[in-house]
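Folds abound. A case:
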Amino acid sequence: MAQRMQAEGWNVWAAVRSAESATLARAQGVTPIDAADHAALVAAPTMAAMLVTAPPDERGCPGLNALVPAIAQAGAFPDWIGYLSTTGVYGDREGGWVFEDSPLRARSPEAARRVAAERDWLEVGRGMGLTVQIFRLPGIYGPGRSTFDRLREGRARNLIKPGQVFSRIHVDDIVSGLFASVARPHAGRAYNLVDDDPAPPHVLNAFAAEMMGQIAPALIPYDETALPLAAVRFWSENKRVSNARAKAELGWRLRYPTWREGLTAIYAAENKGSEA
């Protein structure tokens, strides 16, 4: 997001919580501000847009806790605020479709915190007259973070659970969805930023392995007794997530409508110039 904003002429600041993050920000041409330094946050330049990405903890959203008091004291409110949440807030739907107005049935402590953080941001938005939007994200993939990497590193467990699907999104399409919202802000709205084709992981493994000229790992029947708790939680939620609202209201068009296009583009970029 920062890279695209810079390319389009924006000045970008980042509220950071560690020296490592500050170093990373500077390396990308982003100005870091210590999130724990209230005076520095108050004195920061007026923001046209503010994106909150940090996950909530037991004290709530760290972005809200640090930034809202600062912008309130400064009296300079952003024109657009985006909060990145997760499709995990919907819980399990046994393979059925969910929409932004579907009931939120979080099943894990982490997802329940997301539900609370969404509520807190929307309440702050209403109370302060801020243009807050919620963006619910599924599994994220992209260059350096895809099925290809897991296959190369031997981390791709080819589990198969009848009827199970997951939604995904290429990182570039998250960015385009956020930019579409900046151009067409809708205060208080939630949007699912997902692609058009929920699918089981073993199908992606087979697709990617074929492109790599490899044989996909052997299929392993799903057995929750053999999996760690985090994996059991992940596989316990089966749903198809609709992106219709984002397309209709934001004019969002995906560069990679499905994981097929996304993986094909990643593979092409990784192997560009590799053939003599």
The mean pLDDT is 95. The chain has eleven helices and twelve strands. The domain at 35-273 is CATH 3.40.50.720 (Rossmann fold). The chain has one domain: 35-273.
